[in-house]
Every structure is written in C-alpha cells, then in structure tokens.
Design a protein that fits this description.
mainly alpha; 14 helices; 71% helix
C-alpha cells in the first residue's frame, strides 16, 4: 500500500502577492492615517513628540558642543530612523483595523513576535544613517577645506557662494540616492515585519516589488513623505509631532493596500491580541 501524502497548496508567485494601486491612492492612505491619528491622538502625538524632542536635542547638543557643521548631516541621518521609530504607530493602526483598543504597553511590545528580524532592519537603517553622515561631512570638508565650523560661517559659505551651491547639489544627489534606496527596499518592510513573521530580506524584496509594480503611486507617496517631513522640520522639529504620526499611520495603510494578506503565512500577532 502506498503511503498517503499530504497535498500542499501550489506556491503563489511573489509578484501575484502584490496589488496594483492607482496614483491617487497615497492621498487615501493619508486620509486613513488622519482618522487613526484622531482616534488615538494622545498615543500618536506622544510618538511624534518623542521623535521631535530627540531630533531637537541632537541639534541643541551639537550647537553646545560647537559642532555646527554636523547639524545638517546628523539631522538628515536621524530621519533615516523614522520608519523604525514608527513601529508603535503601525501597531496602533493595526489594532484599530482589528477592532482592538491600542494601549501603550502593547505598542511598546508590538515587535516581540518578530524582534530579531526587526532589530536587524533597525541596524540596516542605522548603517544607512552612518554612511550618509560620513559622506556629508566628507563632502563639506572637501568643498570648504579652510572654512570655519561655526554656524554663521557655514551658512555664509553654503548659501552665498558658488562652491556652496555645488556642495548643496552634491549633497542632494548623494542624500537622494541613499533615501531612494532606503525607500525602494523599505517602504513596506517594517509594517510587514510587524504584521507577519518574515525576515528583513524577504520583506525588503516585497517592498522592491511593491515599488516596481506601482511606480506612479510610490513616486507620489515618496513626494508626500518629503513634503510632510520638510514641513515638520521647518517648524524647528515641533511640527514632526503631527506629521510623523500621520506618515506612520498612512504607511500602515500603504502596506495593507499594496500587499495581499491572504498570500502570506498566518499572522502571529492576531492570536496574541
């Protein structure tokens, strides 16, 4: 007698696990993110305030230490950690979606189901931040080898000289390239890792496929993230207390809209409640 064999369902191609969305969807994600923010305003704004206070603390600390030339690269590097710091915001949106009430303790421990891989993703983001900060400092040193390092001198050299404009253009190209890579491989990575037991490489591949399949929508979404981030920074980081939670909640809905949940292993978070 032949032994019975358990039939396995056919594997679903990775590309079939990604939804195609239209170019206007990012504005829908922002709307849903705003709803989540207003449903849990204290928790959401608390996340944003922590981010804003830490960012402002970096600027003040560098000024007190007479390291003004590091303000721009360190501030930009700090922003690379935004997706990791928004984990609690993703969990708030996820719990609203599940009909549960978000709580501070649950938000803080939301990543425990996949902590190893999420920390790995955090280390990758930290590596990007270090690379960017070192490149920015090196670019400034090569552009202005004899310039002083106080803030007034830096602003004068950067904003009112040809070399300064070249430096800004070079920094924009380098920073834009690194930010583009981080976005390409990270737009849905952390929300997915929070929601599903998947490693950082698998989630990064999904993120790449999401962008590849939805170029117009993802370009719009990237532009909106830049606009809201600049708006937050323009108010001395204070505005980030609102813009960061809004982007964080909207990022969860971007993940939900672009990735089919029924094409992946069961969600371990739902059983834990």
């Amino acid at each position: 007698m032949e032994s019975a064999q358990t039939e396995r369902p056919p594997a679903v191609p990775m590309s079939d696990r990604i939804r195609e969305v239209d170019i206007g969807q990012p504005f829908v994600w922002l709307g849903k993110g705003w709803v989540d923010l207003t449903r849990s305003p204290l928790l959401s704004i608390l996340h944003g305030l922590i981010f804003a206070v830490v960012g402002l603390g970096i600027v003040v600390g560098l000024r007190l230490a007479d390291k003004d030339y590091l303000i721009y690269p360190m501030s930009a590097a700090f922003l690379f950690g935004g997706p990791f710091l928004a984990l609690g915001l993703y969990d708030i949106s996820r719990r609203h979606e599940m009909g549960q009430r978000p709580r501070p303790g649950r938000c803080l421990t939301a990543s425990r189901h996949n902590i190893y891989h999420i920390l790995t993703a955090g280390l990758v983001l930290m590596l990007f931040a270090i690379i960017w900060s070192r490149l920015a400092v090196l670019t400034f040193a090569l552009s202005f080898p004899y310039a002083g390092i106080d803030l007034s001198t830096i602003l004068e050299k950067v904003l009112f000289t040809v070399d300064g404009l070249i430096f800004l253009a070079t920094g924009a190209v380098i920073g834009g390239a690194l930010a583009g890579i981080a976005f390409l491989f990270g737009v849905v990575t952390l929300p997915m890792m929070l929601d599903r037991r998947i490693d950082v490489f698998g989630a990064a591949l999904v993120s790449f496929l999401v962008v590849a399949r939805n170029k117009g929508a993802m370009l719009t979404w990237a532009g909106l993230i830049v606009v809201f981030t600049i708006a937050g920074l323009a108010t001395a980081y204070v505005g980030l207390a609102i813009t960061l939670p809004l982007i964080g909640h909207a990022s969860w809905h971007a993940y939900r809209a672009c990735v089919k949940p029924d094409a992946w292993p069961a969600n371990p978070c739902e059983a834990a409640g």
